[in-house]
Amino acid sequence: MGERKLDTEGCQGIKFKNVTLEVFSCMKKKLQAYGIEVSSGNSGVLEGNGIVAHFSWDGEANLSIEIKERPLDTYCGQVSGKLRAFWRECQGL
Questions:
Q1: Which residue in 29, 93, 28, 78 sits closest to 55, CA to CA?
Q2: Who has the most CB within 10 Å: 11, 15, 20, 34?
């Protein structure tokens, strides 16, 4: 396993709007298929592929994800881009 970097300079938190229960469930399934374990419930930890992040969904429409660790060769934009791609796919966009 490659080295991981604690995200001390911090990736900006990623916020998603219009996240219905269906979209939230879809995103969790896509993350799991991508090799990332997802805590059950509306908040918890995403962990896998060298990434550790905390997520929180308000149960209605707003999802926040904060990246805590990532591989040294992975940029914040790569992680947020993948999350946004999953969100768009789950939205049917």
A1: 28
A2: 11
- pLDDT, tens only, 16-27: 999 999 999 999
Which run of H or of E encompasses 30? helix 21-33
What are the helix and strand counts (H, E) for the chain?
A: 2, 6
What the block records as the tokens of 32 is 């799991």
What is the predicted pLDDT for the residue at 1?
A: 47
Residue 84: what are its φ and ψ, rounded to 5°? Answer: -65, -35
CB neighbour class for 25 (10 Å; exposed up to 12, middle 13-18, buried from 19): exposed
